[in-house]
Amino acid sequence: MIQRKLSKAQGTTVQVLAVQHTQLQAQLGETQEALNELGKLYQAHFELPEGEVQFGQTADGWAITVTPKPEASDAEPPAEDCA
């Protein structure tokens, strides 16, 4: 491993960017949480099944897509024969 000492100005630049990165990650988490909550509200409003919610743009606007959770009563797929 090769290591070099950064100047004070270089270290300050890295520190500022690292702080901004941490702040953006927190904002991204808050945004994702808001989208998840909005998805739950729209699921209830449109009487959609439980499952993974995704928002996307279509040619004529925005849409919500729900991938339903697999039913618990569904049998597991058969094991593949390794012979």
Provide key terms for this protein:
1 helix; two-stranded antiparallel sheet; 2 strands; 19% strand; 83 residues
Rounded average pLDDT: 91
Query: Which percent band covers the strand fraction?
Result: 15-25%
Order of helices and strands: HEE
Helix content: 40-55%
What structural class is derived from the secondary structure elements? Answer: alpha+beta
What is the topology, as strand order, of the major beta sheet? 1-2
Low-confidence stretches: none
Ends: how far apart?
46 Å
How many β-strand runs? 2
Q: Looking at the structure, what is the overall shape?
A: flat
- What's the number of helices? 1
Q: How many structural domains are formed by the residues? A: 1
Using only C-alpha atoms, the radius of gyration works out to 23 Å
Main beta sheet strand tally, sense and closure = 2 strands, antiparallel
